[in-house]
Model the fold of this input.
Amino acid sequence: MPATRTETQNPESETLPFEDALRELDEVVAALEAGQVSLEVSLQLLQRGMALAARCDATLDSAEATLEQLVATSDGELVARRVEWDDEDEDAADDSDEDSNAG
Done:
């Protein structure tokens, strides 16, 4: 089993670069899926994996919030416009609101 940072060192996941966090998360998942570690180590890996997943999610949310797309205006000029994302959670909440109002 490859050594994970949980076993050797425990840097704060909030300061870990995205690529490193994702790579370590893959290692944690592989170690858990292999099932060759004790229950205690599995719990430590699970906690580390959850912290790494939260770090990756926060980084992706931040990148998504700043993403822009180039849009051509009617006169052919290109302008940058912030990308608007559909939030699945909001869509689900809107659907449930419509269902409750229908009855």
About this structure: The chain has one domain: 1-95. Residues 1-95 form one domain. Helices lie at 5-8, 18-34, 39-66, 88-102.
